[in-house]
Amino acid sequence: MDFTEEQIHRYSRHILLQDVGVEGQEKISKGKVLIAGAGGLGAPVAFYLAAAGVGTIGVIDGDTVDLSNLQRQIIHFTQDVDKPKVLSTKEKINLLNPDVNVITYHTLLTSENALEIIKDYDFIVDGTDNFPAKFLINDACVIGGKPFSHGGILRFDGQTLTHVPGSACYRCLFHSPPPPNAVPTCSQAGVLGAIAGMLGTIQATEALKYLTGVGELLTNRLLAFNAKTMTFRTIKTKRSDKCPVCGSHPAITELIDYEQAVCDISNRIKGRPNM
Amino acid sequence: MATITVNGDKQEIKTPVTITELIALNNIAQPDMVSVQLNEEFVNREDYKTIELNDGDEIDFLYFMGGGCR
């Protein structure tokens, strides 16, 4: 890949990094990353990956922008209310960096489409807002052999881990989703908007580390932080042999759509306000 | 007495103590929802009542965080 003068100028602060250089920037520019969920986490991820010049960014989200999203979903502006989130995201990415090829999927990730969608990407970032989607992404990436970054936020807390084939997956730590409504979501319990930025930028960093091969990924570790005390903790973990999806005798060999997703969709169809 | 590490902090506890008892001692919110790791390994929920902790054990309580967020 030959960079133009303008691209060398644009990416000069990456190229200056000894660990990245022109070679690393080439890897970023050839990289393909899928962002699942163009919300609180997906927004900063999209901005930083776009700024970094990731060659192809896929964005999947079935929602439209709501006024209550703007407190943290910084890629969407006031003028975007009611616009599909994937469209709003694509517009901002291309304003920031026209080099990026953006592929949008204005739909929900399901057991039907997940493997087909992720197969074209090098790395997947989970920025979804519900457990069915988080377990679906985990299972799809494990079954499809794809690396991904898991992220979750609530109130003043965040946690994230990176999975690559062979390392601990989300299910190694959390075997199955909690029952619907047992654990509050951000739309029920609230979240400090800036937390989404703290966690999303960690996920974007992991994606860039994966593409460039720089450093050590957040594998076999769960990073958890609390912003009230501003304490970060890394919990060591390992692949569980008994894991239902990545263990030696997996019970899960095909993707599952958990019920909560269905309830959620039917609520949306009924016209419940999108919190 | 035994010294164990709970979520990164050392605790002196009277033994014998099971995981279920430790959850109660630590006033864990929503104990049914917590995921437990003992010495870096996942513990099945049905074993919380029977597994007793030993001196030097490291235990982590992990919570579901589902936000992304809408």
Major beta sheet, strand line-up of chain A: 3-2-1-4-5-6-7-8
State the name of the first-level CATH class of chain A: Alpha Beta
Secondary structure: number of strands of chain A: 8
Major β-sheet of chain B, in short? 5 strands, mixed
Class derived from helix and strand content of chain A: alpha/beta
CATH-wise, what's the superfamily of chain A?
NAD(P)-binding Rossmann-like Domain
Strand-residue proportion of chain A:
15-25%
Q: State the domain count of chain A.
A: 1
H and E order of chain A: HHHEHEHEHEHEEHHHEEH
- Measured between the Cα atoms of the first and last residue of chain A, the distance is 44 Å
Ranges of chain B where pLDDT stays below 50 over 5 or more residues in a row are: none
* Helix fraction of chain B by DSSP (H/I, runs of at least 4): 10-25%
Number of domains of chain B: 1
Mean pLDDT score of chain A, rounded? 93
Give the proportion of residues in helices of chain A: 25-40%
Superfamily (CATH H level) name of chain B: Beta-grasp domain
What is the N-to-C order of secondary-structure elements of chain B (H for helix, E for strand)?
Answer: EEHEEE
Describe, in plain words, how this protein is organized in 3D.
The complex is a heterodimer of chains A (275) and B (70). Chain A has eleven helices and eight strands. With 275 residues, chain A is an alpha/beta fold. Chain A has one domain: Rossmann fold, CATH 3.40.50. An eight-stranded mixed beta sheet of chain A has the order 3-2-1-4-5-6-7-8, sandwiched between helices. The longest helix of chain A has 20 residues, at 193-212. Chain A is globular, with a radius of gyration of 18 Å. Chain B has 70 residues and is mainly β. Chain B has one domain (2-62): Beta-grasp domain (Ubiquitin-like (UB roll)), CATH 3.10.20.30. Chain B has one helix at residues 19-25; strands spanning 2-6, 9-13, 35-38, 41-42, 58-62. In chain B, strands 2-1-5-3-4 form a five-stranded mixed beta sheet, with no helix packed on it. In chain B, strand 1 (2-6) and strand 2 form a beta hairpin. At the A-B interface, strand 5, strand 6 and strand 8 of A face strand 4 of B.
